[in-house]
Every structure is written in C-alpha cells, then in structure tokens.
Fold this sequence. Notes:
It is a single chain. The chain is an all-alpha fold. Helices cover 61% and strands 1% of the residues. It has a two-stranded antiparallel sheet with strand order 1-2. It starts with a helix and ends in a 9-residue tail after the last helix.
Amino acid sequence: MLVGRQSKIIAFVALATLMGIANTADAAQCGSTATGFEAWKRQFATEARGRGASTTAVAALMGATYATATIAADRGQRSFRLSLDQFLAKRGGPTITARGRALKQSQAALFASLEQRYGVPPGPLLAIWGMETAFGTQRGNQNTLSAVATLAYDCRRSAFFTEQLYATLTLIDRGILSAGTRGSMHGEIGQTQFLPKSILNYGTGGDLNNAADALASTANFLKAHGWRAGAGYQPGEPNFSAIQAWNAAPVYQRAIALIGRQIDGPEGPSARR
C-alpha cells in the first residue's frame, strides 16, 4: 500500500480531476443551432453572476434572443475572400476616397486635433469610417446584446465572443449600453463599429454614435496598437500593424491602407509606396 507523500500526490490529482469534471459540467456549453440557446443562457447567467454581473445585466442577458440573422452574416463573409480590386469595387472604394477627401477639408480642425493628440493622420481614420458605416449612414439595426450572446453561444468563435459578452454586460452595468442598444450583425457599435471589449479598452468616453467621439476612440485604438506619428502605414511600413489590429482580414487591411493614402495625398506620411 502507498503511504506518505505518494498517497498525498494521488489524492491531489484525483481531487483536481474531479474539480475539472465539475467545472466542465457547470460551464455553459456552446451549440450550433437555436435549440440549446435558452439552456445556455441560464448556465451563462450563473457564471456571469459569479463574476460580479449585476441583476440588471443578467436580466438583460436573459431577455436576449437567438440572432438568426447574425449567424447567417457570420457564415457569409465572402467579400473578405475577394482580390483587393474586387473588394474595393464591392465596398465602394472610389466613393469612400472622394467623400473622405471632402471631409478632410470640411472637418480640417477636427482631424488636425486628432493627429496632434494621437499621431494618426486623417486618411486611415476616414478610410475606416467610410468602410465601416459609409460615414455613419449604415450603422446597423441588430440588437447588440442578442448578437453578441448568440456568437458567444455559437461554437465557431465562442471563446472570442464570450469575452465580448462579458464586456457587453459590464457596459450595461455602467450604463454605457442597454438591453436595447442596436448596431451591426456582430455586435459592432457606432460610427466606426467598435466591439464591446474595444469600447472598454479604447473608448475615450464619448458617444460612439457621434462622429468626433468615434474617430477619437478609433485614433486611440490605433495609437494603443503601436501607431507612430509620422511613420508610414502601407504594408511593410511601421504603422500597418496597427491597421491589422483593427481587422483581421488581409484584404480589408490593404484596402484601408490604400484608401487612406489616396485621401492623405502626396503630403501624407504614407503617400510613398
């Protein structure tokens, strides 16, 4: 019979194994159809309470519905597989450039102040604004909490959107979002489409549906991801990695860099190839 230190080790391993099984059993399990969503919500609500979510936030979560449209959009992002030229044509690249140049002139004071504070020139900010919401005209009408909860439940990217869901509940607790807040299909919010976790980490405290506030938060995001004032932002240049942090799709990244350069013109830091 084993005694002493060996028996203690075996007992510890057995206890750890049992705890792991219990935690697995208690954790909210992802799914791929609407069938298990209500049960998942109840499990997730228990976890959220354990992490300090308020009664208000949990009640909001329990009112969330399975967002079929969000799942369809998540499965149908075919434009990110296009060539750069095809992507620009589909997303209205020339229109974004033309409108961006006009806004750069008409809102010169705003963009000068943003560049002074964050080091980010107008081009990439206007490119992101135009690409994300057509300069605020297409911000979406999907319930944000339902969209994020659905994607946290869905097995495809459950870990990523679980973090977004906890951020959403925190923002509801703080009164920044509500159960009725609306945005785009994946839970993006405002003029430049911030995800909830990015609001917590990089939001500058304004209203993301206000263009100036949203652009300030966007510039802050880029600065926080290594943007260097005066450096280039084309592929291979120092600031391109900050654009990559904004969106993971390579064709989107290249489109933002190109449109930004076209808006900034020959005087911009990234006008050169």
